[in-house]
Amino acid sequence: MKNIEFAGLVFHHVKADSIFVGENKGGWIYASQRPKHEVRCPDFFITKEPLNLTELSTILGSDLSPGDERTWNKERLSAIISLLNQDIAACVAELDGDWEIRCPTQSEWLHAKNSAIIDCKAGSKEILADAVSSNYRGAMMDGRPRLFQDRGPMQWHTATMEIHPNNSSIHALSSAPMDRDSSGLSLRLVVTPIRKGAARIVPKRADYGANIRSELLWTTILGVIPSFAIPWLRGMGDYVYSGWVNLLFGGLCVGFVTGAFWRPKRPIIMYQDGELQ
Prior knowledge:
Blueprint: E1 4-6, E2 9-14, E3 17-21, E4 37-41, E5 44-47, H1 53-60, E6 71-72, H2 74-85, H3 88-91, E7 99-102, H4 106-114, E8 125-127, E9 157-163, E10 171-177, E11 182-183, E12 190-193, E13 200-201, H5 208-233, H6 237-242, H7 244-261, E14 275-276
Antiparallel strand pairs: 1-2, 2-5, 3-4, 5-12, 6-11, 7-12, 8-9, 9-10, 13-14
């Protein structure tokens, strides 16, 4: 497919492919990044760089002040995207199906980044189309935006991709409030097909039984057993009997601490293992 030029912007083609999002390490510190899952992204188009002041001024047909391209809220973002979508039919006339212009989802952003299609500026913070979530349970597996499923103040936030201030190759998922003006944000856009029908999502429920059994096993092996074995091997067998409560409590504490950093890797959820929403 050719690149798309529209509203003074050039959207670069990203080929359809699968991408793996998230982390499968078992430590508790990685809980918000689990489960690792496959996302199948269709063909889409993305701007190589976030919108600059000149491009944004061209879209709105008015001169803007420096810094306006980095200050966003929900209303302003919706207005820009709605304005662009009014004339999208002209730029996708040669493409099949229905298309839309919006911010990229995390999976689209990562796929474009891994494909060396986009350029990232160190220290930037790019707006994503996804809502904020505590982990990847319930995440979309076809690249469509994830909606906010809960209640509370985080419903007014949006997910963002934050770039390391010194190394543009390092990035992390973050968030930003959109119920008020937020400065320091960048806007990158995609032309992407509208996903229709039921969404395939990461299963919302984990195998809690397997997780509990694994935690008991490794807490015993890494904490409780060494706690009793060390004084026994050092010739303090009497204390093993008289101070077993202290040894048990200490072993449990050590076992729990190790769980923060290491546990066996969790299974990767493939696309076909997702559930229909």
